[in-house]
Design brief:
single chain, alpha/beta, three-stranded mixed β-sheet, 17% strand, binds nicotinamide-adenine-dinucleotide
Length: 326
């Protein structure tokens, strides 16, 4: 790509924030626009090292605000859209599903309309493996791009709905799209309500660590920087209209993850506190990333190297996460 304008939605959040920093640093010749509403999950302090870079721009806006989004697209004529903005926390979708439908479904449709209107070169929709529902504990079975969508939570149902809209804009209008579906991300700048940063922050403070149910639910863990590299690859080399699964081949039970963090920090497993299970808690997610690997992607982090880097980062960057807990 030559000089290009990229719109990243949700670039003040966890994955979008890491992606904005990755792209601003890797491609000084691209103009990166970060559009974010700055909900509880978004913050700009994480971008203090790129704020002054000439190729970084921030726009505060709501993706459901059709007029504002259309005006921005017509003014800036973006070449590419990489869409992360969403309500992303399953527990919050159980207490307030409507917000998830509004942001994740209607917000995506507004962006698709704007992208269609100005004719972007590609629209990447960042989705989740949770749209496929849950797997059994049989370790030989994985989600592939052909697995039927069977979302179980209001969060995953809203993401699946947005995936279907994105697909429909490709099939009906020929909008050049890719959908990526990734497993659980972890790494720097992860909001401390999610399992790994919550556990690290609690253990560092010698506080109890809640574990849902018996802790045997399995997730596949993907380091956020490996995810950023995957999206970069799909942006440049992904075949239009295709879905790509992004997974780390790092399956762990939630209890294993918590115990690893406790051991790494030299604390006692007495900190673990089992709490009532989440409603509709999916048993297992695991992704087969073979299709993405044919494009040349492979993760740089194993779970062991990634979790060590992440714990170290949280120890050194209390300035970022401590205020968020307050
Ligand atoms: P996040 O909750 O950390 O960040 C979401 C960002 O979107 C925040 O900055 C928030 O302010 C912004 N936002 C929310 N509503 C908005 C609106 N109406 N208009 C504009 N901005 C708005 O989420 P994340 O963990 O970085 O996830 C990013 C994307 O990746 C989401 O689409 C999510 O579904 C998907 N995903 C995340 C994971 C994961 O492990 N975190 C796994 C699979 C898929």
């Amino acid at each position: 790509m030559q000089t290009n304008k990229l719109l990243v939605t949700g670039g003040a959040g966890f994955i979008g924030g890491n992606f904005v920093q990755y792209m601003v640093n890797k491609y000084p010749q691209y103009d990166i626009y970060n559009l974010d509403l700055l909900t509880y999950a978004g913050d700009l302090t994480k971008h203090r090292q790129i704020n002054d870079k000439e190729n970084y721009h921030f726009v505060k806006a709501d993706i459901t605000d059709r007029q504002t989004v259309l005006t921005l697209f017509e003014k800036e004529t973006f070449d590419y859209v990489i869409h992360f903005a969403a309500e992303s926390h399953v527990d919050r979708s159980i207490t307030d599903p409507e917000r998830f439908v509004r942001t994740n479904v209607l917000g995506t449709q507004v962006l698709l309309d704007a992208a269609k209107k100005i004719g972007v070169k590609k629209f990447i929709h960042v989705s989740t493996d949770e749209v496929y529902g849950e797997l059994s504990f049989d370790p030989s079975i994985f989600f592939t791009e052909e697995t039927p969508l069977q979302p179980n939570s209001p969060y995953s149902a809203s993401k699946a709905s947005s995936d279907l809209l994105v697909r429909a804009y490709y099939e009906t209008f020929g909008l050049p799209i890719n959908i990526t579906r990734c497993s659980n991300n972890y790494g720097p700048f992860h909001f401390p309500e999610k399992l790994i940063p919550l556990t690290i922050s609690r253990v560092l403070n010698d506080e109890k660590v809640p574990v849902y149910g018996d802790g045997k639910n399995i997730r596949d863990w993907l380091h956020v920087l490996d995810h950023c590299a995957a999206i970069d690859l799909v942006l440049h080399n992904g075949v239009k209209g295709e879905v790509y699964n992004v997974g780390g081949r790092n399956e762990r039970t939630n209890l294993q993850v918590v115990k690893t963090i406790i051991q790494s920090l030299g604390k006692s497993e007495d900190l673990i506190e089992f709490v009532s299970d989440r409603l509709g808690h999916d048993k297992r997610y695991a992704i087969d990333p073979a299709k993405l690997e044919t494009l040349g992607w492979k993760p740089n982090y194993t779970f062991d190297t990634g979790i060590a880097q992440t714990i170290d980062w949280y120890k050194k960057n209390k300035w970022w996460w401590k205020p968020l807990l307050e």
